[in-house]
C-alpha cells in the first residue's frame, strides 16, 4: 500500500500550497504559471536525457587485455588492429621485420648455447683444462651426449656475425637502447624447461610503451598511411638484412642438422613452441626483399612493458551509431601487474587470456611456479575482485594449437595436473576439463551472478580469431547498450 505523507509531515507543504484567500483570477494565473513551470521542467529533463544519451554514445567502449606474460595479449591486440586498421597494420611491416630478425637471432643464440652445453658435457673431465674453452658451461660430464663434429663447430663459427647484428637490430627498434643500459629493457628468455638457463643472460626483446609510442605510433592509433613502397616503408635492405641473407644457407644447414636436433631434444628445448619461431621459414624471411605477412606479424614476439592503448572506430550497423573503441594491452609479467589495477573501474570488458598449453612450463620470473597454476590463480583473483563485479570478463583459453601438438607428441596432462587422473589425453577431453575448472572458479568466486563467456582460441590464427573478435565486439556493445537502457 502506498505510504501517505500528511501535509503536517511535509516541511515544504506551506511553500507549495495555494494561499488561503486566493481569488478565482489569482488561481487562474497561478495554474498557468504552474503549467508553464512544469513544461519548462519537462523540457529540461528531456534535454538532460538527450545529453546523457549523446554522452553515452560519445563515451568510448573500453576493453582491457589481461593475462600472464606470453599469454597472447599483444597478439590479440594485433588481431583487433588487423580487423579495424588493416592498412596501418601493414604499414608497420619494416618494424615487424626488425622484430622478426631479432627473433631469429635469439633462436640461434639458444642453439649456440645448447651446442656449447653439449660440447662441455661430452668432454671428458680428464681432458686438460688448457684444452677446454674458457667460457665452457659448467655442466656434468655425460658420455652419451652427441659429439659436435668439426664441421658443425665451423658452421657455428661462420654464424657468429648473427650475434653482432643483435645490437644494431635492438637499436633500430629503440634508439635509446645502449649496449650498457639497454639491458634494462631486455629480459631473460622464457619458456625454457631448465630454470638455470635463465642465468645465462640470454635476452628476450622487450619494448616499453615509450619506445612503442615512437616506433609503432601510427599502428597503435589506428591511423592510415597510403604508401606501400618499400623505400617509404623502410624495407630497403640494410646491414642486418644483408648479414642474415649471407648467413641464410648456413642457418638452414645448422637448424636441419640431425646432431643439433638431437642435442635440442636431449635438452628438451622445443624451439618450435617458443614465441617468435621462424626457423622453418628461414629461406623466405632472410630474402633481401622479404616483407612480413600478416601471419608473420602475429607470430613475431616482443614483450610488452607498460601499457599500450589502441584506438579505433567500429562503424554502426543498421540504425546504431559508430562507436570509438579503446583496447589496452599491458605487460603480463608479475612486476607489471600492479599497473593493471588503475584500469579496473572503467572497463566495459576484460579479455583474460589463459594459455592452456603451458601446463608443463614454469614462469620466467619465478621458476618455482607452474604457468597454468599462475593463470588459474590470476583468474580467481580477477573474478573475485569486487571492483570488477559488474565487468564482463571474457576468457580466451589460448594456445590451443600448441596444446594439441603437445598432447599428440605424448606429453601427458595428468603428469602435471594430478586431478586429471586417467582421463583421455586428447585435445577435446583436456580442453573441456580445463574449461570446466575455469567455469567453476568463475561461478564460485564472482561477487554476484554473471555470465561465463569462454572461447577456445589460437590467436595466431587470424581467420578464426577474427570471427571470435567479431562476436566479442558485438557482445561488449550489447552489454554496453543494455547498461544504458537499464
Ligand atoms: N602457436 C601459438 N602462438 C601464440 C598464440 N598466442 C600467442 N602466441 C605467440 O606467443 C608469443 C607471445 O604472445 P604475446 O601476445 O606477445 O604475449 P603477451 O601476453 O603480450 O606477453 P607480454 O607482453 O610479455 O605480457 C608471440 O610470439 C605469439 O605469436 C597461440 O594461440 N598459438
Ligand atoms: Mg605483450
UniProtKB/TrEMBL annotation:
Q: Which SMART domains match?
A: G_alpha
Q: Which Gene3D superfamilies match?
A: P-loop containing nucleotide triphosphate hydrolases (3.40.50.300)
Query: Mind telling me which CDD domains this protein's record contains?
Result: G-alpha (cd00066)
What PANTHER family does its record include? GTP-BINDING PROTEIN ALPHA SUBUNIT, GUANINE NUCLEOTIDE-BINDING PROTEIN SUBUNIT ALPHA HOMOLOG
Q: Give the protein's recorded name.
A: Guanine nucleotide binding protein, alpha subunit
This protein's GO cellular component annotations are: cytoplasm; heterotrimeric G-protein complex
Positions contributing to Mg(2+) binding = 304
- Location of region: Disordered: 14-36, 124-143
Q: Where is the composition biased (Basic and acidic residues)?
A: 25-36
- A Pfam short name: G-alpha
Spans through the membrane: none
Report residues binding GTP. 329-333, 398-401
Q: Recorded GO terms, molecular function?
A: G protein-coupled receptor binding; G-protein beta/gamma-subunit complex binding; GTP binding; GTPase activity; metal ion binding
Q: Which GO terms describe its biological process?
A: adenylate cyclase-modulating G protein-coupled receptor signaling pathway
Extract the signal peptide range: none
Keywords of the record, alphabetical order, are: GTP-binding, Magnesium, Metal-binding, Nucleotide-binding, Transducer
Amino acid at each position: 500500500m502506498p505510504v501517505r505523507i500528511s501535509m503536517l509531515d511535509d516541511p515544504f507543504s506551506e511553500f507549495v500550497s495555494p494561499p488561503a484567500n486566493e481569488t478565482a483570477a489569482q488561481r487562474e494565473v497561478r495554474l498557468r504559471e504552474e503549467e508553464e513551470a512544469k513544461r519548462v521542467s519537462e523540457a529540461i529533463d528531456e534535454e538532460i536525457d538527450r545529453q546523457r544519451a549523446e554522452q553515452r554514445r560519445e563515451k568510448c567502449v573500453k576493453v582491457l587485455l589481461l593475462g600472464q606474460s606470453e599469454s597472447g595479449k599483444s597478439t590479440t591486440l594485433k588481431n583487433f588492429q588487423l580487423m579495424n586498421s588493416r592498412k596501418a597494420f601493414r604499414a608497420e611491416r619494416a618494424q615487424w621485420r626488425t622484430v622478426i630478425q631479432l627473433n631469429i637471432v635469439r633462436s640461434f643464440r639458444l642453439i649456440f648455447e645448447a651446442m656449447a652445453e653439449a660440447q662441455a658435457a661430452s668432454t671428458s673431465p680428464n681432458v686438460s683444462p688448457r684444452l677446454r674453452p674458457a667460457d665452457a658451461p659448467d655442466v656434468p660430464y655425460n658420455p652419451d651426449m652427441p659429439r659436435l663434429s668439426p664441421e658443425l663447430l665451423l658452421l657455428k663459427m661462420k654464424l657468429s656475425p648473427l650475434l653482432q647484428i643483435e645490437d644494431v637490430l635492438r637499436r633500430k627498434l629503440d634508439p635509446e637502447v645502449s649496449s650498457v643500459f639497454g639491458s634494462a629493457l631486455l629480459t631473460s628468455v622464457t619458456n625454457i624447461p631448465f630454470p638455470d638457463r635463465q642465468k645465462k643472460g640470454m635476452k628476450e626483446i622487450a619494448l616499453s610503451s615509450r619506445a612503442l609510442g615512437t616506433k609503432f605510433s601510427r599502428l597503435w592509433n589506428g591511423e592510415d598511411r597510403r604508401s606501400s613502397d618499400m623505400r617509404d616503408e623502410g624495407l630497403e635492405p640494410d646491414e642486418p638484412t644483408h648479414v642474415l641473407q649471407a648467413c641464410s644457407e648456413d642457418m638452414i644447414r645448422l637448424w636441419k642438422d640431425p646432431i643439433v636436433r638431437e642435442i635440442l631434444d636431449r635438452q628438451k628445448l622445443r624451439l618450435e613452441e617458443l614465441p617468435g619461431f621462424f626457423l622453418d621459414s628461414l629461406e623466405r624471411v632472410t630474402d633481401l626483399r622479404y616483407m612480413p605477412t600478416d601471419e608473420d606479424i602475429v607470430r613475431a614476439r616482443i614483450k610488452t612493458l607498460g601499457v599500450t592503448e589502441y584506438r579505433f572506430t567500429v562503424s554502426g550497423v543498421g540504425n546504431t551509431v559508430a562507436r570509438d573503441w579503446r583496447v589496452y594491452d599491458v605487460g603480463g609479467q608479475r612486476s607489471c601487474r600492479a599497473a593493471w589495477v588503475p584500469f579496473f573501474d572503467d572497463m566495459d570488458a576484460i579479455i583474460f587470456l589463459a594459455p592452456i598449453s603451458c601446463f608443463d612450463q614454469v614462469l620466467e620470473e619465478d621458476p618455482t611456479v607452474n604457468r597454468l597454476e599462475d593463470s588459474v590463480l590470476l583468474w580467481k583473483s580477477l573474478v573475485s575482485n569486487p571492483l570488477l563485479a559488474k565487468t564482463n570478463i571474457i576468457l580466451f583459453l589460448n594456445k590451443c594449437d600448441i596444446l594439441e601438438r603437445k598432447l599428440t607428441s605424448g606429453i601427458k596432462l595428468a603428469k602435471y595436473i594430478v586431478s586429471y587422473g586417467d582421463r583421455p589425453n586428447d585435445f577435446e577431453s583436456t580442453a573441456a576439463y580445463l574449461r570446466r575448472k575455469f567455469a567453476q572458479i568463475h561461478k564460485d568466486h564472482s561477487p554476484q551472478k554473471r555470465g561465463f563467456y569462454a572461447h577456445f582460441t589460437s590467436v595466431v590464427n587470424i581467420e578464426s580469431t577474427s570471427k571470435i573478435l567479431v562476436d566479442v565486439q558485438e557482445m561488449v556493445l550489447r552489454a554496453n547498450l543494455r547498461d544504458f537502457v537499464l
